[in-house]
């Protein structure tokens, strides 16, 4: 009994512990709070019609509210909250694997030309984003290199790219606080991207009176269910089979990732798992017997449910864990750069991305996704598109094109663009 009590006390201490004014929350409680925050976001979107009207993702609504509450706790209570986010990244792997399972070669083939067009438009935007950052930074008396930090390094690149490039900006270009500037811009960009995509898509859909393809409308969404749809029944075996199928694809994705790493190719794990899902869905023989006795779960309500929960919980945890108190001192000049970047993104989406992608419903959904990864990250893009499709209808091709551009191709292009621009500034 004594041993059991000590074990319980030890586990309790690891779950949540206050040390030197910092409340440290472990991975299990972090995931639990993420689910609670997701529920809060869903309830807020039900109560406040404007959130649904402008397709603000539910995890964004709840995550930002919780983030502000933690900021108030820091300011008025002197307590900082710090989360352990390792489990959060597993949810991202789950989500992108569901996208791969839902993909068909028909969608990939038909999406070849749109993918190339979107990639071309994104590269042009990346150049403009950096030039805008440099221009604003120079105007307000900052080093031009700060503008690149407030450009594709932090916005298209996100927190990881900001952290990776910060030492170069500090050592080679003498930018004091490069790490803090990059993280601040990435954080502001994530919030702005979460709030921008839905309203832009709503504007485009209403202005051009767009509707989903009639053939796609009755189909199951890639993520979640449509707002006005009837309740969906999910059989126990269907859900269990979806979990098994996901794990099979993830195992294959991990093996692919290890093989690529051995060959010197570095990819995020979720990209390998996305490809594994695509391969399993399209290359697995239909006649192959399955232990579950069910059909392969591509585009089923069970897969859509897992995708919705995984993405929602991931984004809720990402937003609720933002430490706004570390960014306040940098808010002034950086908000000028961020304001110019948001304006650029909106204008570029409406007048370049939407027309290039065909001025149809699919183009509007892709525009919402572009708003997500142009200022934030690929998960933000997927959340924006999910919110739009839940309100207006399915758009399968967008959920293939956008992550391939946002999570794979632009990372390669970003390195080349950043190094080229820094060479010009040297």
Form type: globular
The first-level CATH class is given as: Mainly Alpha
What CATH calls the topology is Na+/H+ antiporter like fold
Percent of sequence in beta strands? under 5%
List how many beta strands DSSP finds. 3
- Biggest sheet, open or closed, and with what strands and sense? 3 strands, mixed
Report, as a whole number of angstroms, the end-to-end distance.
67 Å
The average pLDDT is: 85
Query: Could you state the order of secondary-structure elements as H and E?
Result: HEEHHHEHHHHHHHHHHHHH
What is the number of helical segments per DSSP (H or I, 4+ residues)?
A: 17
The spatial strand order of the largest sheet comes to 1-2-3
Low-confidence stretches: 5-11
Q: Please bin the fraction of helical residues.
A: over 70%
Total number of distinct structural domains: 1
Oligomer: single chain
Quick overview of this protein structure:
The chain contains 17 helices and three strands. With 426 residues, it is mostly helical. It has a single domain (2-425), classed as Up-down Bundle (Na+/H+ antiporter like fold).
């Amino acid at each position: 009994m004594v041993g059991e009590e000590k074990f319980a006390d030890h586990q309790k201490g690891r779950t949540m512990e206050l040390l030197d004014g910092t409340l440290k929350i472990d991975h299990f409680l972090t995931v639990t709070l993420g689910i609670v925050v997701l529920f809060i976001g869903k309830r807020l979107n039900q109560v406040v019609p404007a959130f649904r009207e402008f397709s603000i993702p539910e995890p964004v609504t709840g995550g930002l509210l919780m983030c502000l509450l933690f900021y108030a706790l820091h300011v008025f209570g002197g307590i900082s909250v710090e989360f352990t986010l390792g489990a959060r990244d597993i949810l991202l792997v789950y989500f992108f694997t569901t996208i791969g399972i839902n993909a068909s070669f028909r969608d990939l083939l038909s999406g070849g030309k749109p993918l190339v067009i979107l990639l071309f438009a994104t590269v042009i935007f990346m150049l403009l984003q950096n030039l805008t950052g440099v221009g604003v930074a120079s105007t307000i008396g900052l080093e031009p290199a700060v503008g690149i930090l407030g450009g594709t390094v932090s916005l298209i690149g996100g927190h990881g790219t900001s952290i990776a490039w910060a030492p170069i900006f500090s050592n080679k270009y003498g930018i004091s606080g490069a790490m803090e500037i990059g993280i601040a811009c990435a954080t502001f960009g994530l919030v702005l991207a979460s709030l921008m995509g839905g309203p832009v898509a709503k504007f485009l859909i209403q202005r051009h009176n767009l509707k989903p393809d009639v053939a796609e409308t009755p189909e199951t969404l890639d993520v979640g269910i449509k707002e006005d749809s009837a309740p969906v029944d999910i059989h126990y075996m269907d859900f269990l089979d979806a979990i098994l199928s996901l794990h099979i694809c993830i195992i294959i994705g991990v093996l692919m990732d290890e093989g690529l790493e051995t060959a010197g190719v570095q990819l995020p794990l979720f990209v390998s798992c996305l490809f594994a899902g695509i391969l399993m869905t399209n290359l697995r023989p239909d006649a192959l017997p399955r232990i579950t006795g069910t059909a392969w779960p591509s585009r089923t309500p069970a897969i859509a449910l897992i995708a919705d929960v995984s993405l929602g919980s991931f984004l809720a945890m990402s937003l609720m864990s933002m430490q706004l108190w570390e960014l306040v001192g940098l808010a002034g000049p950086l908000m000028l750069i961020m304001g110019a970047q948001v304006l650029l993104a909106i204008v570029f989406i409406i007048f370049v991305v939407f027309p290039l992608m065909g001025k149809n419903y699919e183009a509007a959904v892709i525009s919402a996704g572009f708003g997500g990864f142009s200022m934030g990250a690929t998960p933000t893009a997927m959340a924006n598109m999910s919110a739009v499709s839940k309100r207006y209808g399915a758009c399968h091709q967008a959920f293939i094109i956008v992550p391939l551009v946002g999570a794979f191709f632009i990372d390669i292009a970003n390195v080349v663009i950043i190094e080229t621009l820094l060479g010009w500034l040297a």
